């Protein structure tokens, strides 16, 4: 009888040990990945290749009416993007700042933002930070046109894409 109880205790101990090991392994694999976007290391000199984006722009795409923006480097490390109410460019409706800090170029608020993960003389790609959900790429097509390509996943996880065509607009008088 004593031998049966000893065997049962051993089996029970082995079962709990295996259960504990399995629980530890599953809790490690279910943790969210701490790995976010891998920012590209960028210098102020690298940003000179993005100067093609400076100017006044009219955007069109899968929207009801055109939108209007101005992209301007206020210094070697800060790009300011202003959105306007209409083609008169006289009423600013939103301002975004993309800044180079510690070798990373991006835009951030208290809860969301984006960081550049790729940059060359014709495009820059940004990946989301925080609660932001979409990545986007600005890609030059000519001296007077570029496109903004936004990518995200919908509630079902299906990849989505929206492309806006940006055409140079005359500056306001």
Name the structural class: alpha+beta
Q: In terms of per-residue confidence, which ranges show pLDDT below 50 for 5 or more consecutive residues?
A: 1-33
User: How many separate domains make up the residues?
Assistant: 2
**CATH class term of the largest domain:** Mainly Beta
The profile of the biggest β sheet is: 10 strands, antiparallel, barrel
How does the overall form come out from the CA principal axes? globular
Helix percent reads 10-25%
CATH superfamily of the largest domain: Calycin beta-barrel core domain
End-to-end Cα distance: 101 Å
How would you summarize the topology of this molecule?
Layout: H1 2-29, H2 44-47, E1 55-60, E2 67-75, E3 78-84, E4 92-101, E5 104-108, E6 112-120, E7 123-130, E8 135-142, E9 145-153, E10 159-168
Antiparallel strand pairs: 1-2, 1-10, 2-3, 3-4, 4-5, 5-6, 6-7, 7-8, 8-9, 9-10
Note the main attributes of this structure:
single chain, Lipocalin, disordered N terminus, 2 helices, alpha+beta, 10-stranded antiparallel beta barrel, 173 residues, 2 domains
General description of the model:
By secondary structure, the chain is α+β, with helices and mostly antiparallel strands. The protein contains 2 helices and 10 strands; from the N terminus they run ααββββββββββ. It has 2 domains: 1-28; 44-168, Calycin beta-barrel core domain (Lipocalin, Beta Barrel). It is 18% helix and 47% strand. It has a 10-stranded antiparallel barrel. A hairpin with a 3-residue loop joins β5 (104-108) and β6.
Q: Can I get a quick summary?
A:
The chain has 173 residues and is α+β, with helices and mostly antiparallel strands. The protein has two helices and ten strands; from the N terminus they run H-H-E-E-E-E-E-E-E-E-E-E.
């Amino acid at each position: 009888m004593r031998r049966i109880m000893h065997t049962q205790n051993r089996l029970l101990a082995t079962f709990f040990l295996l259960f504990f090991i399995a629980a530890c392994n599953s809790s490690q694999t279910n943790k969210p990945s701490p790995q976010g976007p891998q920012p590209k290391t960028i210098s102020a000199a690298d940003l000179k290749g993005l100067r093609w984006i400076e100017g006044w722009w009219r955007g069109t795409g899968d929207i009801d009416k055109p939108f209007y923006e101005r992209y301007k480097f206020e210094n070697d490390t800060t790009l300011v993007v202003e959105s306007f109410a209409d083609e008169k460019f006289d009423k600013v409706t939103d301002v975004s700042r993309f800044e180079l800090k510690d070798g990373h170029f991006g835009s951030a608020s208290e809860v969301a933002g984006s960081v550049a993960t790729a940059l060359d003389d014709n495009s820059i790609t940004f990946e989301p930070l925080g609660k932001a959900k979409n990545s986007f790429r600005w890609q030059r097509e000519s001296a007077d046109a570029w496109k903004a390509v936004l990518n995200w996943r919908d509630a079902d996880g299906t990849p989505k894409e929206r492309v806006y065509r940006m055409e140079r607009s005359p500056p306001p008088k």
